[in-house]
Specification:
The structure is a single chain. The protein has 83 residues and is α+β, with helices and mostly antiparallel strands. 18% of the residues lie in helices and 28% in strands. It has one domain: 2-Layer Sandwich (Alpha-Beta Plaits). It has helices spanning 20-24, 61-70; strands at residues 4-9, 29-31, 38-40, 53-57, 76-81. The protein has a three-stranded antiparallel beta sheet with strand order 4-1-5, with helices on one face. The longest helix is centred in the last third of the chain and has 10 residues, at 61-70. The chain is globular. Iron/sulfur cluster is lined by residues 9, 15-21, 38, 71-73, 75-76.
Length: 83
Amino acid sequence: MAGRVRVWIEPRDACISDMVCVALCSEVFDIDEGDGKSFVKVEWRLRPDAVSEGEVPEELRECVKAASENCPVDIIHYKAREE
Ligand code: SF4
């Protein structure tokens, strides 16, 4: 079975809204128009109201990795989950 990749934004309050993660990985991340902070798109969330965490397919690992490595405040984390 294909692996999944867990992704989370922590602490989300530290997001400086520069949109780097959205530019590099719009499949997974977007910016909330209300508070201006990044979130994990709803289709990847484990719970609809848990905006800062989710699980994505292996195919999206590289874009999550790019976002994580380039986030200026280092708040994007990810970990592979084998099934
Ligand atoms: S790259 Fe980091 S600081 Fe920039 S919008 Fe995304 S989570 Fe926020």
